[in-house]
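[User] I have long wanted to understand how a fold can be written as tokens. Those tokens are not coordinates but codes from a learned vocabulary of shapes. Could you go through the record with me and say what the backbone is doing? Thank you; the sequence and its tokens follow:
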Amino acid sequence: MQINILIVEDKDVNRQLLRAALSSKNFNLIEAVNGQEAIDICIEKLPDLILMDIMMPGINGFQATAFIKNIRSDIYIPIIYVTALSAENAMTEALEAGGDDFVTKPVNFEILESKIAAHLRIRDESIKLAELNKVLESHNRRLTAEHEVIEGIMDNALSMSYLEPERIKFHISPCSVFNGDVLLVGQKPDGSICVFLGDFTGHGLPAAMGTLPLVQVFFTMVNKGLDLRLIVGEINRTLKMLLPMNIFCCANVVELDSEKASLSAWAGGLPDAILNNVATGGIRKIQSQHMPLGILSPDEFDDTLLVFDGVSDETLYMLTDGLIEARNAEGEGYGLERLESMMQTKNVFDSIIEDLQEFAHMDQHEDDTTLIEIKCGNINS
């Protein structure tokens, strides 16, 4: 590919000397007799390199350089001053105007050719980088569009949930655009409340892949009032059928019957959920009993539930591992023991979030973090 070099010089003899010196090279030489003509040429089509005289009538070389550099700031257009000014003065003003190099008159053409070759190599790398940036920008725009779609769907799923403010508080803090944590709350026709808290492997788009079928299965079956064992079994079957082998979902799934003061739970892979009785200071843990959802086939899957009676005076806390694994500046983990110690504080939920934020910089956390508080008693009584 032929290289276009623009010679900007108001004296004919100097243009002829430059043309003669460069004519043996594979250059397409273009000439301009003043700064304005150089600007007009560059507006129409930028050359690959410019040899710029400084002292010209009208628009001088410095002024022309400043204008040309603004035409395409994303691509390196080398401008080498060919000047009779002293080296010190030329270099200072060249840098201020945006020039890249200079040679003094009378021109040493070997030095000029070496400088031209060096700056053209830099320009080639600049063009490659600009093309790569275009590809990356296009990729980022596409990802952003995908993010917005999935993020909207996930927000809609949360908005479908039964989030009674007097009973339920929740905190969700994603570490990436897509939150690998999933929180769903539904109410059965008989008034009992079903809660699904899940943590898909990974973050971003792969972690969001399982959310769509999960949401559909959960709300469809909860709205029909189906048994909790059937719900977790169908979720497992759907995720196993649809998701790649390396994507699965750790989850705690509970059903709260406030009238019977009973809580049923399926626990698979998440940190212990906690039933906290502030009045007595006692806690009961819902410990993981099963493999995460989406790993086992329906024949292998275990839908056994844990049942807790007498929960009317208790409050349920469910969390993902991003909370207890959050680290402070010294690398210490927040830990389940610290979480349990917060159960005796006033306004437990708010105290945990405040303590966690003080302990670790939550804008720099490494995993999605979700905490939900559910008052188990009949709040209407």
Notes: The chain has two domains: 3-131, 160-375. The mean pLDDT is 87. The domain at 160-375 is CATH 3.60.40.10 (Phosphatase 2c; domain 1). The first strand starts at residue 3 and ends at 8.
